[in-house]
Amino acid sequence: MVAWVLRALVVLGLLGSAWVHYDLYANQGFSDIQTIGPLFLVNVVAGVVLAVAVLLWHHWLPVLGAIGFGAATLGAYLISLTPGGLFGVHEQFVMASEVWGVVTEAGCVVFGIALLLLMVRSRTGARAVARV
């Protein structure tokens, strides 16, 4: 039951991040920004693909992918908050979409790590039981 809840939270984080990036791309003018616009579309597709993989393939690899996705996307956003920005884009953490992006991406990392640890622990426990 705990694994299912964690898996659902990871999937929601991935889809939430994908939706935020889609909305920014389609409705907030990010489609006009060179480099960042196409990267937002990559984020949308990657978020959806990883969400499907985490949901349907109960293996550690898509969970690790979700953790990496969340960390990379959150890291890119944090870089965009610096004076140097990211590819010329300087964010200020004032829009609701920025808050939701941070929440969903942090959720991918936190819940992904928790799910990965649970998967490793249950796998190790299953091997110990098999040896007895």
UniProtKB/TrEMBL annotation:
Q: What is this protein called?
A: DUF4383 domain-containing protein
| Species per Swiss-Prot/TrEMBL record | Amycolatopsis pithecellobii
Q: Membrane-spanning residues where?
A: 36-57, 64-87, 99-120
Alphabetically sorted, this entry's keywords are: Membrane, Transmembrane, Transmembrane helix
